[in-house]
Amino acid sequence: MCGIYLDHQSCCPVDPRVEEFARRYSCIDFGNPSALHSRGLAAKTAVEEAREKVAELIGAENPESIIFTSGATQANNLAIRGAALRNAARGKKLLASQIEHISVLNPHKDLKKGGFELDTIPVDGMCVIDISSLERLAGKETVLASVMYANGEIGTIQPIKEVSEIVHREGTLLHVDATAAAGKIAVDVQKEGIDLLTLSSNDIYGPQGAGALYVRPGVRIQPAIFGGGQERGLSPGTENIYALAGFGEAARLARLEMAEESRRLQAMRDALMDEILKIDEAYLTGHPSQRLPHHASFRFSRIEGESILLTMDAMFNIQVSTGSACSSRTLEPSHVLLAIGLRHEEAHGSMIMTLGRQNSISQVPAIASATEKTVERLRALSPL
Ligand code: PMP
């Protein structure tokens, strides 16, 4: 099926080089890494090599600071539940930005039932975190603050170094969900002062079913689920060797190719934004420049994002998104779009295009023309 795929934020294809690299771990070196025989040792070696490659992508102090998980959701739960419960003697206050992913917001909600207090940090109209609110809300009893690196729905990149300096003044731990940002822009946990960082394999063209939590050496967390001793007991269960080996290789490729690939995609993204913003009553959402290089997000008045998505797919074979894939079936307006101050009816008209390795700037005229025709058609049918 040809067509133009522009929904890399919700799912990336596995890079063929990653697939080629990882294949042997599902059929040759497939042993259980805890087993002492040669197949087990080969698998164990693959996991440790993957750990090194992931650590290098984010500038971690050492490979041991990487805890593999089944994905970003598990890593976020481990970071939040693990840090809050382990350090509760210090205080029971938590902070999170208003635009966090649902896999960050829901563990917080659950902790509130157990007696933790949660303050949320607002964002401005371009989705940048409000630093003065952070300064006001951060306090000595705050155990953990969660601020995502970049928002997957509207692409805005947060000033993480500044956030880190503020929360560390009070001794609060900083958790950063870098699922959308890693592999697209340089992320350096040491330079930016990050204590806990979430990553996902598929978001960097690795297999699904793998992710990681970086835990700064010295930071203490407890498991969020219980089992055997794998991953220092923090993420127990038999490792998914194929996915982890692929994740490592995807991280290595991302580290080597990120700068050039991001320049290429940013040129395409800028051209696309120029064209689409010529459409009547089309608006950019998020920051015009402080945003992920492959990310374009818009809203159109008087039409629904779901109708845009379905029409673009059915008539033009172009796949776009209208919000977080994790909540897109609820038909509720996105909490991120409401947080930047859009009214419900404005938030309903959103369309997100996230570009990837298979896209090229030569596709821009076709995408822009399909979008224009879709918007015209839907407005002609719209009762609004
Ligand atoms: N955090 C962010 C920022 C995301 O965009 C996503 C979804 N890709 C997740 C966490 C959860 O990822 P997963 O569904 O792969 O666990």
What fraction, in percent, of the residue positions are helical? 40-55%
CATH class of the largest domain: Alpha Beta
Judged by helices, strands and strand pairing, the structural class is alpha/beta
What ligands does this structure carry?
A: 4'-deoxy-4'-aminopyridoxal-5'-phosphate
Widest beta sheet: strand line-up: 2-8-7-6-5-3-4
Assign an overall shape.
globular
H and E order: EHHHEHEHEHEHEHEEHEEHEHHEH
* Overall average residue pLDDT: 95
Biggest β-sheet strands, sense, barrel:
7 strands, mixed
Gyration radius, rounded: 21 Å
Count of individual beta strands: 12
Detailed description of the structure:
There is one protein chain. Helix content is 40%, strand content 14%. With 384 residues, it is α/β, with parallel strands linked by helices. The protein is globular, with a radius of gyration of 21 Å. The protein has 13 helices and twelve strands. The strands form three sheets. It has a seven-stranded mixed beta sheet, with helices on both faces. Strands 9-10-12 form a three-stranded antiparallel beta sheet. The longest helix is centred in the C-terminal third of the chain and has 36 residues, at 241-276. It has helices at residues 16-22, 24-27, 38-57, 72-86, 102-113, 131-137, 160-169, 189-192, 241-276, 305-316, 335-339, 344-347, 364-381; strands at residues 4-5, 66-69, 93-97, 117-121, 142-146, 173-177, 196-200, 211-215, 282-284, 295-300, 318-319, 350-354. α1 packs antiparallel against α9. The protein has two domains: 4-11 and 258-381, Aspartate Aminotransferase, domain 1, CATH 3.90.1150.10; 16-253, Type I PLP-dependent aspartate aminotransferase-like (Major domain) (Aspartate Aminotransferase, domain 2, 3-Layer(aba) Sandwich). α8 links the parallel β6 (173-177) and β7. The structure holds 4'-deoxy-4'-aminopyridoxal-5'-phosphate. The site of 4'-deoxy-4'-aminopyridoxal-5'-phosphate has 13 residues, from α4.
